[in-house]
Amino acid sequence: MHNRREFLKLSALLGLAASGLPQWAKASAKVSKPVVVSTWEHGQPANAAAWQVLSAQGSALDAVEAGVRVPEADPLVRTVGLGGYPDASGKVTLDACIMDHQMNCGAVACLQDIKHPISVARKVMEQTPHVLLVGEGAKAFALEQGFTEENLLTSQAKADWLAWREGQKATPQINIENHDTIGMLALDTMGNLSGACTTSGAAYKLPGRVGDSPIIGAGLYVDNQVGAATATGMGELMIKTVGCHLVVELMAQGLTPQQACQKAVERIAARLGDYQAYQVGFLALNKQGQSGAFCIHPGFNYALQDNSGSKLLDSASLLGAKV
Ligand code: GLY
Fold first, then answer.
1. 135 part of a folded domain
2. Half-sphere exposure (CA, 13 Å, Cβ side) for 245?
3. Which has fewest Cβ within 10 Å: 18, 191, 312, 317?
4. pTM to 2 decimals?
5. DSSP assignment, residue 101?
6. Collapsing DSSP states into helix, strand and coil, what is residue 264?
7. How far apart are CA 129 and CA 203, in angstroms?
8. Which residue segment(s) compose the domain that 250 sits in?
9. Beta-carbon neighbour count of residue 265 at 10 Å?
10. Nearest CA, atom 4, ligand 1
11. Over the stretch 43-80, which tens digit does the pLDDT of each residue have?
12. Residue in 58, 38, 65, 50 with CA at minimum distance from that of residue 232
């Protein structure tokens, strides 16, 4: 550091106070916990299940698994688990990952016929030395672990797929209809963070396509000293920018969750020429229980549950009005 003026400029940029600590670290006396946040409206019933765990002093890890199992089992949630949109060949293939406060993580990709990929991901984390199992191997592992095989293509999803194949609806919406992934982040009463992310992926994707949701650092990242982030929207953009790791690193540099999500979306916009064609949303939670979100197009929202109750909040966006 050359001089005091430069130091002060950098400190201001990073949100550092005179003590050398980021603002969020100085606010450690005001930790708000427990708290759970998750993407989209389907986050509200999912948060309610997670809250049952958190409010009984359960772990953030148990909470996020219990939470995202709710939309995984709901055939009316068309972008996660049972009832999810199939790929172009009519097969429902699921992606999921989970990460705890000790950097343990597990994931499955392109998993068929198993309703709760998040629980299989947790088994990968806890029962194997690996992080990611895919396709047939992931399914064989799940069956070995006692999961049961079932048809995940509901009659509604099949009818929609047949209509799409007939060309009646060739372009899935980037946002409203195809509002994909549930990502969930929780801070428990012990002050530990965990996260989970699960999806059926992009509607009518090429068979074999895997998005960001099972990729640690892209669709989910947790650093228990700093915070956690998850993502929704067009997964390829999060993979190209390792988006959730970027959000957590920005929080480590002193940004609030809201500022970190915004900077990550701005990075995508600065680097990827076609970004306006897609929706991407980041959601983050820091060690103090503060949360924030940011997306490209208006329309992304997230659910928050803490001791004051349950809320559905609109995310600010790059191409729309700030909220
Ligand atoms: N974000 C989910 C996906 O792109 O598959």
1. no
2. 11
3. 18
4. 0.90
5. T
6. helix
7. 32
8. 29-88+153-317
9. 28
10. 235
11. 999 999 999 999 999 999 999 999 999 999 999 999 99
12. 38
